[in-house]
Design the sequence.
């Protein structure tokens, strides 16, 4: 089964990347929906939208990573294009990419994600001139910060990424484009230094793109000579804490983790990682967890998101229903992908799952409900109920709302204190 989704990537002729003189801008094709979203080889697929006529679109492709397959159109109008799934297509998840017409309407674009996608496609089909023009354009769009190079975007990626996650995803695409031309990019160091506390890159798509970029860049840099295991010493405040055994060059392992809690002292702490002779260079990440009282000064609420959590009562008896009303809203123009609302529950809460029927998808954890919400006009509103199972006087976990595709965009609601009697 082939699954097709709308992830619009406009591929422009190479002339637009060469700095052509400004001309009247042609309408931009916009794909809005695909029917059916799952199809088999030979099935007809309809893509609906606007500005899809022959004057604007020269060709349509199915894409999956570096794989690009041109499809033969059976029908084309301003509002839709139709094509049959090629007979040799293998099952998988594919995006749709269009090649816009050029001619006298060639124009510059300044979105690095789009240019990098174009560069990879041009390289794949052997258009050397267009590929080099795209790389030259990407060099002009390179940005620098704290000694690092990165590429930013003004809109969302086709996978809803924006903010830091979108910047990482975009930079990874650019690194892949340069690697396709046999060049090492300074953007790799930016990617390696932008992991989150879990050792990945903030969102699923950003992480996938970074891993693809690392693989592509490793082919350019070449293989290091093999080396055996080595040791590194970890010191806290100048005192030896832990010795770690590093794997050999060809050994595939997960990250090495070390808990330094026992060696930390109140106030400032200094952690030193010292390689012994013969040890290869390695990346080190330090992640810290700590608690801040709710009475302490808090940062300004996120301007992009709003969250309201209201319980109809915080004093109840065991088994008495408690209703929780949630309002989650995206108010900024950045991002339009899924939001996650984590709603804190008091200890021992027995949630009525039937009251969550209005939520498309949710996870029920011991101390919270995680609701997956797509933004909509006026915000997402829902109510659920739970019953306390035993007498307590305790706070619920705090609640938060964040963007699934840019977790740094987050707003938090303070916890509620519950008193439950027999």
Sequence:
């Amino acid at each position: 089964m082939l699954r097709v989704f709308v992830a619009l990537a406009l591929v422009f002729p190479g002339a637009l990347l060469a700095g052509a003189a400004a001309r009247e801008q042609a309408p931009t094709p916009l794909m809005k929906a695909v029917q059916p979203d799952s199809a088999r080889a030979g099935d007809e697929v309809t893509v609906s939208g606007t500005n899809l006529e022959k004057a604007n679109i020269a060709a349509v492709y199915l894409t999956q990573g570096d794989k690009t397959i041109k499809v033969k159109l059976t029908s084309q109008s301003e509002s839709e294009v139709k094509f049959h799934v090629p007979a040799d297509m293998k099952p998988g998840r594919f995006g749709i990419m269009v090649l816009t017409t050029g001619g006298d309407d060639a124009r510059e674009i300044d979105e690095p994600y789009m240019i990098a996608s174009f560069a990879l496609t041009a390289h794949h089909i052997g258009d050397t001139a267009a590929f080099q023009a795209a790389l030259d354009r990407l060099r002009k769009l390179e940005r620098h910060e704290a000694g690092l190079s990165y590429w930013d975007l003004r809109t969302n990626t086709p996978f809803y990424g924006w903010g830091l996650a979108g910047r990482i995803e975009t930079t990874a695409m650019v690194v892949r484009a340069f690697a396709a031309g046999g060049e090492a990019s300074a953007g790799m160091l930016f990617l390696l230094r932008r992991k989150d506390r879990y050792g990945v890159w903030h969102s699923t798509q950003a992480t996938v793109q970074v891993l693809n970029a690392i693989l592509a860049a490793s082919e350019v840099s070449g293989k290091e000579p093999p080396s055996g295991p080595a040791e590194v010493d970890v010191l806290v405040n100048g005192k030896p804490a832990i010795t770690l055994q590093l794997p050999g060059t060809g050994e595939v392992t997960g990250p090495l983790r070390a808990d330094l809690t026992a060696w930390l002292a109140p106030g400032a702490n200094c952690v030193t990682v010292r390689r012994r002779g013969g040890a290869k260079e390695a990346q080190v990440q330090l992640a810290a967890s700590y608690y801040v009282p709710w009475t302490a000064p808090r940062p300004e609420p996120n301007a992009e998101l709003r969250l309201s959590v209201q319980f109809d009562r915080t004093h109840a008896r065991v088994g008495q229903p408690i209703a929780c009303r949630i309002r989650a809203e995206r108010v900024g123009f950045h991002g339009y992908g899924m939001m996650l609302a984590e709603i804190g529950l008091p200890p021992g809460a027995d949630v009525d799952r039937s009251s969550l029927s209005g939520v498309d998808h949710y996870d029920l954890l011991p101390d919270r409900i995680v609701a997956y919400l797509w933004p909509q006009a006026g915000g997402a509103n829902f109510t659920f109920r739970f019953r306390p199972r035993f007498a307590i006087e305790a706070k619920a976990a705090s609640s938060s709302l964040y963007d699934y595709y840019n977790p740094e965009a987050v707003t938090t609601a303070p916890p509620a204190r519950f008193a439950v009697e027999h």
Remarks:
- The chain has a mean pLDDT of 83.
- The domain at 305-421 is CATH 2.60.40.690 (Immunoglobulin-like).
- The chain has five helices and 27 strands.
- The first strand starts at residue 2 and ends at 4.
